[in-house]
Amino acid sequence: MKVELVTYRKGQARSVIYEYVPREEGERPMVLDVLLQAQATKVPDLSFRYGCRNRTCGICTVDINGKPRIACRARARDGDKVSAVSTLPAVRDMVSRRDGIARQLRGKLPHTLRANDLNVEAPADYHALTACIECYACLDHCPMHARNLDSGGDKRNEDGAYRWGSPFSLLKLQRIRLDPVASGLDGEKAFAAATDLGLEICRDCPGCKCGVGIDLKNKVIKPLLEAASEPTAKD
Amino acid sequence: MSMETVWLDYDVIVIGSGGAGSAAAHAASGAGASVLVVAKDPIGCSDSKIAEGIVTVRGVADDADSHEMLADNLRIAGGDLPTPEITQAFAEDSEEAYDWLRRQGVRPRIDNDRGAPRALPIPLGGHTHRRSVGHDNGGLSVGHAAWNAIVQGAGIDYLEDAWFLDIVTSVDADGRTVLGGLVYDAGKGRLLAVSAPAVVVAAGGLSTLYFPNTDTMRGNTGDSFALAMRAGAELVDMEQVQFLPFCLTSPPSYEGLLAGEPATAGFLGVIRDAGGKLILDSVMLRTRAECAAAIVKAVEDGRGTERDGCYLDLTANVKAERSGVYYRNFLETSLSSVMVTVRQALGRAAAECKEQWEIRPGAHYSMGGIRVDEFGSAVSIESRDRVKGLFAAGQAMGGVFGANRLGSTSLSEGPIFGTRAGRAAAALRGKKNEHFTSRNTDAFEIRLNHYRGLLGRSGDKAGSSLIRELQRAAWKGIGPARTRAGIEKFLRQSANFRHDAKKIAISDEGLWNQSLINYVEFVNMLDTADAIAISALQREDSLGAHIRLDGGTTSVLFEKAYSVSTYFDEEMNLKVGRLPRPPTPWQRVLTHILRDRKRKLGMKILRLLPVSLQDRILEKRYRAVMGNVELDGVKPKSVKMPQEIEREAA
Ligand SMILES: Cc1cc2nc3c(=O)[nH]c(=O)nc-3n(C[C@H](O)[C@H](O)[C@H](O)COP(=O)(O)OP(=O)(O)OC[C@H]3O[C@@H](n4cnc5c(N)ncnc54)[C@H](O)[C@@H]3O)c2cc1C
Ligand code: SF4
Ligand code: SF4
Ligand code: FES
User: What residue of B is the nearest CA neighbor of A131?
Assistant: First the structure.
């Protein structure tokens, strides 16, 4: 099986064709296995992120044939083309710069919840959102995040935080709104942050897709948009 | 290309953004310190995030569970190697630590009758009480909490994609004092010289030394231990590497991944050799070390499978119809991510426990670590003073678990000792005494020049392939089955690896210099591996996780406990010593042993009963703690896997 690895160094992209050597008969390796073997043999300093090999740490996301995939759980096929995700700035080989996403949430969520009673059950949707592994696959085709990269730019403030939001950021904000231990004020602050990050863009968007199957459309975007349409108490 | 150097000033540097690092940063900033968190992985992405998410909370399900009981439980399971002050601190702080996690968003299911988090229905292996709380989505909830504490932390700056390289110290008549540290900020392509009177090492473990026989994050290259040793600190119990008994052997992409812990076995699960012969019963009541030892010994005896494994046979649990439903519900709700992995790797019948699982021990955790007191502060070595300003928390620290760690204790350990170390570290702020006013640039420059000098170095070796060779050698020589000859051979190989390290080619790239990263991690792995090896030589009998095939077994009741300690002397030679450990009072050990015998006997009898009787007894037991579970109530979470993987894995 031959896989095309797109390396990127000192600003230059280059393709390397790597032939995978199966470890046992009939092996159907994941793309991460191919990267690991290439790094241990023919492409010694190949850069890529990985951690758990088990679809949990969320850091091994790469583009396979142009679509974001979790490398440790994506089967490699002959002729696959593997490159860094196109939705974030490339650093080296398959590694791209991630931290502008989380940074935009600094100060937008409570840093400690002060409630007296912690023994309250969270609703099922809270847990559904906690399933997020931060793989950033959802940045793909998100028109809100695309504004950060408009005309090939990379719009981050001096802290490195992106101006516009993404499904991930909205998920984090909506999660606080669902948390029974958070205060109403925390929820309002989160909602204001969602608005500021560009929530209105979601109205004209067919909706986002999550890399691990979280129903972002119904569990994140819809409730936020509904809240945005509600008349506020002051009106 | 040369790398720019940026000078920074903080009160506290925290290395690592897992459970321990995040709690340390939060506590230090809460105490008024300016904090820099440095993590080589994205913030929060750590073992704490990929864990099963089960947390020890004393007394959560049982009022009889006292501080003393939990502390004794840890020490006795740990072969009396843990430090009493440290296990006491663990027992006293576990509830507060758990509440800290909850204040960062961790939400358990609630037992409304008790008005407390709901504990798992079965105590994890070796625990005397039900005191482990599981969570929806496992460790992900802890990962989100760690992320929250750092990203939302007021007064906390953080850097990801940044490799902490070395702790910088000064030595004078008073001993050693931390001046700060060096960081390779790979994401921005620069070196950071950070001055700070306190460094908290929370950079996790060393299991990557045994890849692919491990279920942990790639970043566990022993950095915690190597950094601390090079800064003059002492390590303890480094021979005690926990090999989790049940990790997968195949298919290759799943090799080493977690398939469960003793409690997974339920009341009726047993371990069998390749020929089907029973090699360990009452698995659920055993410690991880006992289970791993049974497997390793069977394999060494030639009774293992082709892949050097044995079988975890859970089938008896599901033969009985009514209790079987409870058992499967327990697996699917308490160990949900494990069950997803097992289902993908071994198929549906295995996930339904109708087939045995082929398993093999895999590196999971280092009980050994930096020798510290109960506030996480490095303690003094016989002839030398403590390294002032050096703290450790989480897997990086030693003295908590000794020869064996019980399940669910590490996610508590992180916030317990992270908080303690963070507070203690913050107390040093403002102590920028004469050591800092001059900024001691010389001490920094020496280390900076070392790293600058590596850039653009030519050589005929690649760090990435040397790492692979080292991993193979470590598994053989200092892995789960050890002999003097094997360990000595490893030490010789390691000396050769050190020569090879000098020949690693390193590029001159500033941004994400992969060859530099590989070099740095390779050296850290070597330092750590040597500490394991010489500690393992020092302990000639088996104890807990340390299995010497060529030695006897240590008795907890009749032999004086000691810990092995390792450190570099002034000439950077690795030294080894022994630290006597105070025994747990024998009456308490005896009570513990008798209690354990009684439970094991009960379980043996249970196994011999006719299935229908087993079924009734077990259903009653499960129901007492789980409430009513609908007979058709086993809807495995794993069914919700994205279709793509389900299809491909089938
Ligand atoms: C699959 C699995 C399941 C588990 N399940 C449970 C469970 O259910 N309950 C339980 O109690 N325990 C469990 N454990 C154990 C537990 O998760 C870990 O022991 C614990 O999370 C360690 O926490 P830590 O904060 O010490 O280190 P980690 O969480 O591993 O964090 C280490 C941090 O250090 C950083 N780092 C490392 N080196 C450097 C460097 N040189 N420079 C900068 N940063 C660095 C990493 O990027 C990371 O941020 C499990 C472990 C695994 C692997
Ligand atoms: S929402 Fe889904 S796709 Fe986006 S980061 Fe989280 S897990 Fe990944
Ligand atoms: S719905 Fe909103 S967040 Fe989702 S993809 Fe569209 S613009 Fe992005
Ligand atoms: S390596 Fe962790 S999600 Fe792929």
Answer: B137
Pick the closest to residue B179 from B427, B389, B409 (CA basis). Answer: B389
**Contact pairs from chain A to chain B, CB under 8 Å:** 175
Closest ligand 3 atom, CA of A170? Answer: 3
Shortest Cα–Cα distance, B110 to chain A (Å): 6
Q: What is the pLDDT of residues B594-620, one digit of tens each?
A: 988 999 999 999 999 999 999 999 999
**Spatial distance between the Cα atoms of A85 and A82, rounded to a whole number of angstroms:** 9
Instruction: Note the ligand closest to the C-alpha atom of A212.
Output: 2
Quick one: which ligand is closest to A217's CA?
A: 3
Question: So what's the ipTM on this one?
Answer: 0.97
Query: In the structure encoding, which two tokens stand for residue B65, read together?
Result: 């569970």
Whether residue B646 is predicted with pLDDT greater than 50 in this model: the reply is: no
* Predicted pLDDT at B122: 87
Report whether B394 contacts B21 (CB < 8 A): yes
B49–A56 CB contact, under 8 Å: yes
N-to-C CA span, chain B: 50
**Contact A52/B50, CB-based, under 8 Å?**
yes
Token pair recorded at residue B322: 């009514």
**A77: helix, strand or coil:** coil
Q: Which of A34, A53, A69, A132 to mutate to test the pocket of ligand 4 (most atoms within 8 A of CB)?
A: A53
Residues in A closer than 8 angstroms to B115, CB to CB, are 119
Place of tokens 């490699």: A76
Which domains are seen in chain A, by residue range?
A: 2-96 (3.10.20.30), 99-229 (1.10.1060.10)
Nearest-angstrom CA–CA distance, A34 and A17: 11
CB B200 within 8 A of CB B24: yes
Does the distance separating the beta carbons of B104 and A91 come in below 8 Å?
no
User: pTM to 2 decimals?
Assistant: 0.96
- From the list B389, B376, B365, B395, the residue with the least C-alpha distance to B225 is B395
User: Residue B253 and residue A32: Cβ atoms within 8 Å?
Assistant: yes
β-partners of residue B159 are B38
Mean pLDDT throughout B451-470?
A: 97
Chain A residues close to B190, C-beta within 8 Å: none
Over 90: is that where the pLDDT of B174 sits?
Answer: no
Q: Tell which residue, A188, A189, A135, A125, has the closest CA to residue A166.
A: A135
B187 contacts in chain A (CB < 8 Å): 91, 97, 99
Helices within A19-166 (DSSP H only): 31-40, 99-103, 124-130, 143-146
Whole-number Å distance, alpha carbon A215 to ligand 2 midpoint, is 10
Cis, peptide link before residue B212, omega less than 30° from 0: yes
Question: What is the Cα gyration radius of chain A?
Answer: 20
User: In angstroms, rounded to a whole number, what is the distance separating the alpha carbons of residues A73 and A55?
Assistant: 6
